[in-house]
């Protein structure tokens, strides 16, 4: 029998690991007939929000983005997304970016569909328009080697333009591939593992990580990862970008 007093989740001042064994559901107004786990949030000390939604066959998620822009990514399953009247099917690996001030509706959900969301308060940049709605598919995004290492591939899902203040990227590491340096940076991350396993170093602590685990890294949380096991390790992550450091 498993001992229920154990977990791999940790919540510290500048990083957290949230593994599914610790999930407790939240009820979110407007997001009906689904299970919502709020994984990263300002209550934790973060400046972003990350949730994981698991649908039934008649889930309906509706609302209007206000201060925060919203990014939905289909981890598995399918649904449709309607933003400002434009309805598009979304299957595994597809996503929609919803800027501020837009009505959205997610419906026609296959039972058990898993949706990831990232939310960030949008910071306007003088002289630049608010970004448009973007529907996309990770399968169609180039995966160049990261810093010249073919064992690491980085896909950039949102346009690399100054009007965007958040990036969402997919990082793939072949088994044995690792970050080439310990990153120490002002940008914050939220992420979830889509596949594989490995070991993450966060602020000089070492953690085994696998598919389904999420991580929050505050600004300046030191970070390094190595992939291990029989398949590549893949995570999708958020990063705040492109604004003047105050
Ligand atoms: O974009 C990044 O900062 C990325 N290389 N960090 C990470 O994967 N922990
Ligand atoms: Mn980083």
Q: Strands, helices and their partners?
A:
Blueprint: E1 10-11, E2 15-18, E3 31-40, E4 49-64, E5 68-76, E6 78-83, E7 86-91, E8 94-98, E9 103-107, E10 114-121, E11 134-137, E12 145-146, E13 149-156, E14 166-173, E15 189-195, E16 197-202, E17 205-210, E18 214-217, E19 223-228, E20 233-240
Antiparallel strand pairs: 1-2, 2-18, 3-4, 4-9, 4-10, 5-8, 5-10, 6-7, 6-9, 8-11, 12-13, 13-14, 14-20, 15-18, 15-20, 16-17, 16-19
The chain binds (2S)-amino(carbamoylamino)ethanoic acid and manganese (II) ion (MN).
Based on helices, strands and strand pairing, what is the structural class?
mainly beta
Helical residue percent band: under 10%
Order of helices and strands: EEEEEEEEEEEEEEEEEEEE
The amount of beta strand, in percent, is: over 45%
Rg, rounded, reads 18 Å
Distance between the termini: 51 Å
Overall body shape: globular
Q: In this structure, how is the largest beta sheet organized?
A: 9 strands, antiparallel
Unique bound compounds: (2S)-amino(carbamoylamino)ethanoic acid, manganese (II) ion
Instruction: Give the beta-strand count.
Output: 20
Number of helices: 0
What's the pLDDT, averaged over the residues? 98
The poorly predicted ranges are: none
